[in-house]
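User: Hi! Is it possible to get a structure for several chains at once, not just one? Here's what I have:
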Amino acid sequence: MKRLLFLLALALPVMANAQMSNDDVHKYDHTNQSQYRNEIAIPGFDGYHTLKCDFHIHTSFSDGSVWPSVRVQEAWQEGLDAIAMTDHLEYRPHSNIVKAGHNESFNIAKEEADRYGFILIKGTEITRGKPLGHLNAIFIKDADKLDVDDPLKAIDIALEQGGYIIWNHPGWPDNKSTMYPVHEELLRQGKISAYELYNCMESYPLTFDWYKEYGIAPMANTDIHGPVAIDYADRERWVRPMTLVFATERSEEAIREALDARRALAFFHGTLVGDAEYLTKLISASLKVRNLGNGRMEVTNISDITYTMDQGDALYIFPAGKTAMVPVLSGELKVRNCLYGNGKNLMYSFE
Ligand SMILES: [Zn+2]
Ligand SMILES: [Zn+2]
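Assistant: Yes, the chains can be modeled jointly so their relative placement is included. Here is the combined structure:
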C-alpha cells in the first residue's frame, strides 16, 4: 500500500498536466515540440526588419531525404522567416519512385507554409558540371519550363518569369572558386544577382569581395539534403547558414525588393560577411552601451550573435544575450567575426 501511494504521488503531477480525453486515453499534446519555435534574436535597423532566410533547400523530390512539408516545419521551428525550395532540375535519383513535375515539391510545401503563415519561395537548381556549375533560380513561376537542354536558356526563361539567379557554391566540387568566362558574361549581362560565399559547411574566402566587385548579394545557404535536426543538431556550435535580409516587412515581395537592393549579409558559424555599412549598423543595433561615468561601460548584446573584438593586445567578447562590463572603449576595434572582404575585418567604434 505504501508503495502504491508513492507511485500515485509520482503519477499525479503528470496526470494533472494531461488533457483528459476520457478515462481510457490521456493526451499530452503540449509536449509536442513541433508547435514551438526557437526565436533568433537579430535586430533590424533604419526601419528594416532582419529576416533570416535560406534560399537553397532540397527534398525527396530531387536528391534530398526529407518530404517537402517537413522542410517548412523545420525552418519555422528553427526560427527562419523564409526558405526557397530549390530541388535539382537535372539530378533526381528518386524519380523512379517519386514521379512528379518540378513544381510539386513547392506545391506540397506551400500548403504547409500557408498553415504556418511562413514565406515559401518557388525555385529550382539548374545543375550542370563546371564551368557553369549550379545556379538557383528563385521567385520563378513554373520550374517545369526551365527543364531545357541549354542551361543558359533555362536562366533566360527564369528571368522572363521574373526570377532571380544565385550562383551556388562556387568552390564546389573541385575545391576551386574559379570564375569562368561564362560567369563573367552572365554577371556582365546582369543575370546573376547573388552568390553563395557560404554553402552547407563550406566557405569560399576568395569570393568574399565579389559582392562589391560585381554588385551582387552575398548569401549563406544550407543546401540541405538530410534532416536539419541531424546536420545541425548542436545549435550552439553549428547554427545553420542563413542569409540575413534587411526588408521593409515580413513578406516575399519585401524580401525580393531587399535582395534587388542587395541589403543582405551572409551568416554562418558565428561569422558575418558582407557590406561594411550593414555590418556596422547591425552591431550598433545589437550592442547597447551604458556609460557608467567611472571609466567603465556596460555593453548589452540584445542579439543572438556574439561579437568578438580586439584592440591592441586587449580582447573583448560581447556574448549573445549578455551584458559585458568593459573599460570605456574609444577608437576603432577590429571585429574578428565580421568580414567585409577576404581577410578584411570590420573596424568598429563605440563612439
Ligand atoms: Zn548544387
Ligand atoms: Zn543544391
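The longest helix spans residues 2-17. The chain has two domains: 44-274, 280-337.

User: Great, thank you!
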